[in-house]
Design goal:
This is Glycerophosphodiester phosphodiesterase. The protein is an alpha/beta fold. The chain has ten helices and nine strands. An eight-stranded parallel β-barrel has the order 1-2-4-5-6-7-8-9, surrounded by six helices. Strand 4, helix 5 and strand 5 form a beta-alpha-beta unit. The chain binds SN-glycerol-3-phosphate and calcium ion (CA).
Length: 253
């Protein structure tokens, strides 16, 4: 296959939305990512104290809001009272925490198919409640059987993926890899997701993962030299904070 065909075939996923430009995990970041041509939207989900799935990366709210506290100890109403935009600059002040369900509706309302790559954060702490709630919400929208491949679940926790696989066997799953571990095997995950730092140190990892029958997606790929490395290695999907730039780079190649 020529490198041009490869570049065109690579999927681009917006990491926390177009999060280089906008505050991560906000509606504005995801709308921008859709406008930028992202194939799918990545989001981290956590459970609030009252059992709502919210899109927040950190365990605590301090870095990305004007509040203090642990996400799982706060109710949705408490989280909704915080400003999740001001930390990124005055222009973004007033952005609210995003419910996973609202993100789902936004993706479904787009005028082209836009996928969702949902990462469960520290699911073991919630003892299975997070996965159960995620599958419940997906089921409500007819998306839990995975038949259209629109929603994928991702986790660094093998247990979480096994649990999700039991609850919703058809959902495509991505096993995220932080350190060089023994490559995971299907069937509980069809994709593996190493970080770009790991790939720079161990480029042979992609071939080893592919030899196990896994597709490979890499996070977080923002720089042209990293895009090039991924293309050279035959990576299938790029997760990036800069969906527009990466999309344009791939187009121009
Ligand atoms: O998409 C995978 C990547 O998001 C994992 O790292 O810390 O950004 O959630 P993190
Ligand atoms: Ca993530």
């Amino acid at each position: 296959m020529s490198s041009l065909a490869t570049a065109r075939d690579v999927r681009v996923i917006a990491h926390r939305g177009a999060s280089h430009e906008h505050p991560e995990h906000t509606l504005a970041a995801y709308r921008q990512a859709i406008d930028d041509g992202a194939d799918a939207l990545e989001c981290d989900v956590r459970l609030s104290a009252d059992g709502r799935l919210v899109c927040v990366h950190d365990r605590r709210v301090e870095r990305t809001s004007d509040g203090r506290g642990i996400v799982s100890a706060m109710t949705y109403e408490e989280l909704a009272g915080l400003d999740f935009g001001g930390w990124k600059g005055e222009a973004h002040r007033g952005a609210q925490v995003l419910l996973f369900e609202d993100l789902l509706k936004e993706a479904l309302a787009a005028d082209r198919p836009v996928g969702l790559a949902v990462e469960t954060k520290h699911p073991t702490r919630a003892g299975g409640r997070l996965e159960t709630e995620l599958v419940r919400v997906l089921r409500e929208h007819g998306l839990a059987d995975g038949s259209d491949g629109r929603v994928e679940v991702m986790s660094f926790s093998r247990n979480a993926l096994v649990r999700l696989n039991r609850l919703a066997p058809g959902l495509p799953a991505v096993y995220l890899i932080e350190r060089a571990v023994r490559p995971p095997r299907p069937p509980f995950a069809g994709h593996a997701g190493p970080g770009i730092d790991l790939l720079r140190k161990d480029p042979g990892l992609v071939a080893r993962l592919k030899a196990k029958g896994l597709r490979v997606r890499v996070w977080t790929v923002d720089e042209p030299e990293d895009v090039e490395l991924c293309l050279r290695l035959g990576v299938d999907t790029l997760i990036t904070n800069r969906p527009r730039e990466v999309r344009e780079y791939l187009r121009g190649r």
